[in-house]
């Protein structure tokens, strides 16, 4: 009797029940990278000294290698889902990061004049065995990804964005679906002219359809897609950067199927998506590994700050209660990451009033209480947002969240406004430490704030966050806050 073929749907459900996701795979690869350094060091110690017990100096070197690797691999884009999809490209980046780790260790050893404390044989075997382990585990994780796609538990969810004159969209969509991708959303680059019926290139697609690319961008918060594939119109003479410009406003990786030469693709290596050559045009501000690093930063520093500030927060709570009737904390809806709303917390600094119509606080606003004026002047009213940070709806550093009414008002006036939602809102940000905080009573002031927010979003690094936190301590008392 012939063996019954496995049911792909049931297999997919079984894997999902185990919590196997794309982020799990990336995290697994990152952990195995770190373990490669530890494994290599201990194996080298056994080979050289016939014991697996490193001394204090060697343990220090191993610990430093782990810390440096945790920072270097994400910084050099060696720990991402793309590195799993394209193993040789990922291995090249991982090799650079690997070399950087040991180069930094060597510089530290020379600078501290402790090179004589290490056996050259131990160091050599450590480097070789750690690198061999890293290569093997990365190849295994890439193979595991391919297997997951084949059995259906890791089907990447795509948005297919196409030009009006694009041919073969149906064939491309069907081919990608057969190769392990789910076409969740179909988006035309342009709204059809009056009298021209909307093209329905992929009638089998169950996902939402959009009238235009701008429509997709402004409603992206309701979508669940992993990546977009752009199929430009060959007759469209605009540069790719101009065609895809609206996509820079949302946290989404974008690949393009090239139809000819474009300067935006210079120096970019093609890869295969289901056998179709694509080139990565833009990526999310933070890779999966960078998201993890920023979250750890928020948890460690945020929890520490919350504990340190607890006595002060208790005192402020008493003063707020004694100063005027009403609750101690004030909660209001804000738009967070990906434009998804959340509740933000502050110490109440104004008298209780009807908030049906949002009115931004101004200097000498008579709604502000006596204690509230001090809190706003010193930004201490923001301290309860440490709870938002620890719970995950905010970050220590990021674009400051605005009232929903202001989001709607300025979102209609500033094309790039929505781009600030590509990262979690923060307690402080690049705009705030550069003086663009407090009341934004003119469009020019808001434009400056958005310019600084987007500079931060596009240039994030752990160092940048720490720099902003240090600068924040210097500008807590500022004339623009009230």
From TrEMBL:
- At the top level of its lineage, which domain of life is listed? Bacteria
Question: Has UniProt tagged this entry with the keyword Nucleus?
Answer: no
- UniProt EC number: 2.7.8.31
Q: Which InterPro entries match?
A: Bact_transf (IPR003362), EPS_sugar_tfrase (IPR017475), Undecaprenyl-P_gluc_Ptfrase (IPR017473)
Q: Where do the Bacterial sugar transferase domain residues begin and end?
A: 294-476
Q: Where in the cell is it found?
A: Membrane
A biological process term (GO) from this entry? polysaccharide biosynthetic process
State the annotated membrane topology for this chain.
Answer: Multi-pass membrane protein
User: A single GO CC term, please?
Assistant: membrane
Give TM segment ranges.
20-42, 62-84, 96-115, 121-141, 299-320
Q: Give this protein's Gene Ontology molecular function annotations.
A: undecaprenyl-phosphate glucose phosphotransferase activity
List UniProt keywords, sorted A-Z: Exopolysaccharide synthesis, Membrane, Transferase, Transmembrane, Transmembrane helix
Protein family (similarity comment): Belongs to the bacterial sugar transferase family.
What protein is this chain from?
Undecaprenyl-phosphate glucose phosphotransferase
| Organism, scientific name | Roseospira navarrensis
